[in-house]
Amino acid sequence: QVQLVESGGNLVRPGNSLTLSCKASGFNVNDYAIGWFRQAPGKHREGLSCISRHGGGTEYVDSVKGRFTISRDDAKNTVFLQMNSLTPDDTAVYYCAADVWRDWCSFHTYEYDYWGQGTQVTVSV
User: Fold this and answer.
1) Which residues pair with 4 in a beta bridge?
2) Is 9 exposed, middle or buried (CB count within 10 Å of its CB: 0-12, 13-18, 19+)?
3) Staple 39 to which of 45, 81, 100, 114, CB 3.0 to 4.6 Å?
4) Residue 124 and residue 39: Cα distance in Å, rounded?
5) What residues are paired with 58 via a beta bridge?
6) Statement: residue 104 has pLDDT above 90
């Protein structure tokens, strides 16, 4: 049974950092492309970063490039999202997702087959 569980969300002050975890079970995280997404109230779910399977190539959207870093620990079967210099605009529910079919990763939600339940990140004074 394929399952993704996010953790690490919290309430932080602007300028602080946070690391999210996406723990996979039922498959090897190295075998699927994994993406991080977020959804703020009243907004569409947007892709932030992704890591391709096997080779582990990474992609970032412009809004997080230089601030967020995606990484994968195959021994822990977990993908991480390190987030620095957080601002109130980063407040959202953060999700990870797995794409079973493609070698590369993308930011299109419809290309992902399995999703976690999400973890809340709130950036506020």
Assistant:
1) 24
2) middle
3) 45
4) 17
5) 51
6) no
